[in-house]
Amino acid sequence: MSPIAVGGPALFIGSDTPCVALVRPMIDPAQPAVKEAAERAGVTPEEFAGPSDQWQLIADRTDGEGREIALNELSDEAAGAFAQRLLAAIADPEAEFTEVLTVAAHDVLRIDGRPAGEGFAFLASVVPPPSEGTPLLEVEIGPSSIADLRAELEQFRRSLG
Fold it and tell me: 112: pLDDT confidence band, cut at 50, 70 and 90?
């Protein structure tokens, strides 16, 4: 079976592990691999592909600890505004900053950036909703170049259309 292609907007801070990612995965139910997998699962390709309008916050640390939080109430506009604030924050390569992503009156992600070499290092604090009963997860993310960060943020904003 060929691999299933997953598209959709995705913002990654960090590379591989450790990282945090804000994603809205989209799977095309017309893909042959999706049709085949759906048939095996006994569901329609649309059911197998699932909804493509649900944002997720994913965090992963090098020690294996991680979190995945569904952000059903996050809009594309709010995700884009968060990226825009991060883009503005990295404009001054010598300034520390804090940016927060709030969803449904709950701060789910706080990014603290600090200058590091030719870019920034980050402390990402992921705060699951109280209803999940899981604790805050902090992820230390090593230095990323300003050029790479800018490219990632601009690509993310473009992907939102």
Answer: very high
Task: Give the pLDDT band of residue 2 (cuts 50, 70, 90).
Answer: low
Closest CA to 149 of 127, 123, 122: 122
| Residue 157 φ then ψ, to 5° | -60, -40
Kind and range of the H or E run holding 21: strand 19-23
Nearest to 144 by CA among 63, 59, 86: 86
Phi-psi region of 42 (alpha: psi -120 to 50; beta: other; left: phi over 0): left
The pLDDT of residue 132 is above 80: no
In the numeric block, which tokens belong to residue 79?
């995700």
pLDDT, tens digit (0-9, with 9 covering 90-100), for 41-67 = 888 888 887 767 789 999 999 898 999
74 vs 55: CA distance, rounded Å: 6
Distances (CA, A) of 32 to 12, 21, 49: 28, 28, 12
Classify residue 18 as exposed, middle or buried by CB count within 10 Å of its CB (0-12, 13-18, 19+). Answer: buried
Parallel, antiparallel, or unpaired: how do β-strands 19-23 and 66-71 relate? unpaired
